[in-house]
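Supplementary Methods, section 5.1.

A reviewer requested that the exact input to the structure prediction be made available. We therefore reproduce it here, unchanged from the version used in the analyses.
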Amino acid sequence: MIKIKYIILFVLSFIVFSFNVYAEDNNSTGYVSDKSGVNMRKEANTSSDILIAIPYNAEFFIMDNSVEKGNGCSNNWYYVYYNNQYGYVCSNLVKVIGIGDTSYDRPWNSPKKAIMGGAKYISNGYIAKGQYTSYLKKFNVNPSGYYPVYNHQYMANLRAPSSEAYTTYKSLKENGLLDNNFNFVIPEFLNMPDTTYDVNIKNTEILTADIQDLTFEESIKDFDESYKPYLRYLHTIHPNWTFSALKTNLDFEASYLSEKAVSSIEISSNLCEQEPYYETEKGWCIGSEVATKFFLDPRNFLSEKYIFMFENLGYSELYTNEVVQTVLTGTFMSDLSILDNIKYADIFVEAGKVANISPLYLASLARQESGVKESNTTNGKEFAYEGYIYSGLYNFYNIGAFSSASNPALAGLVWANGGRGANGAVLDTNIDKNDDSNMDNIEIPNDNVVVEPPKEEVKPIDINKEFLSLLGVAKISDYIKGYSLGTSVLNIKEKVGSGANIIIKDSYGNIKNDVDLLGTGYQIEISNSLGSLTYTYVMYGDLTGDGEINSADLLKLRQHLLGTATLTGANLTSSYLNDDDEINSADLLKLRQHLLGTSTIVQ
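The structure derived from this sequence is encoded token-by-token as follows.
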């Protein structure tokens, strides 16, 4: 007789919430064509410091392909992103895959385009890069993955993998498919504690069994002993299931510490980090140690209902239109996409085939991200965001919905549009730019040019005497500071009027447009008939120089403290957040508190 033991845990509801971490919006993809590899350099010059060596056939993102040739490169230099770093490579040694591979058919101006394009994005950016299970998309602990561990994670919601897994389980059960052949890849950590489950966290009942089948025992010999009782029970009810151990070679405690900062849970769960809790989004907080460890520990989900978070998400013909339909029934996706004149279930199946990804997973993800009723990410209605009006956009997977955005859902729609301002009309300057409601009664201008107000005739300004007071900035060492986060080029020009000419360039010498935001390393050039001056600007907390403060800046600061990358120049100064000229854990805390909304970095 099979001996079965019961370990009972309690269940909490799943709330939809997710956002990207370190996902990139890129213009094109390249790969190294020279078998010796290529050096990524700090500047566009072969004598510049080498940041990292990119190996043969490795892919990277091309952010700018128009950097001038010369300085040791007979063709143009490319400004690229690879392995969480930005730098320059000589285009002689690389090839471009093409803009179509990273545009993902944007703008997503129909439900089908959003579902299909998003599937390609997830497949290319995650599944094909070693994050091929729901668990690995949340906790990137695959040492063989494309991206460094703990980075490039799709969501912050601790419950997301188990929510997606449970939706898959219910669909398979309803269709009588649970007894099919499934393989589950389950991570293991070093120095795992005896247990991490907690009676205050609702999960499911976890059942165990003793040794029964010696052949099966041989198949799970690579697993730690603490995993085996759960796997034995699953084998007794589903003999066709197989299990593979993913040896992360990562310490469990170190992994918990790395994941905690980017792991959120509902405030209503009473599982926040501490009181007062750090709110990451409205209704969400950084998870407590107990909660983070519980959801990080794979052993807590080795049950029939949640094992599917470890399923390989590649395409399977097992997931037919009928199977996918069971996930969509009861939601706004249960029937036709009116705009496309095709059933949603058919779209998901087609997207799965094209992108080589499970259509059942895609449907489960869309249900989690979009909800059961239409929302602003799925209804195509007009909205205003950061000075532009958009309409007819869809984003079923919330790709690009960064938590640092003023409205993550709308930021995701702008990503689905192909970027800020693309295909978007300029917002009437008399309208509140922070009003994200539908703008049905606004007359939209016919062009995309921000028109500056007429400038008064004034006498030339003595720039050498009045530069700082004129622009409202202060000097700090060799730099200037003082503008609030979100200050645009136009905001600075308006301070000067017609008394002088202003040109602002980024750290690579590119002249910025009026709508662009000021960032660390930007050069502010002011000139008139009486003289000219140039200063480099520092935005505290903006370590990457993109005019924003987000998780990428937190990563840069951590890398500097760990010694894996070094901040220099204006980027170094921008990290002095604790009123001194040193970088230490106090600065890291300041940046983290800013991202969590518990304090604000003062400029």
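The chain has three domains: 28-98, 111-368, 455-603. These observations are discussed further in the main text.
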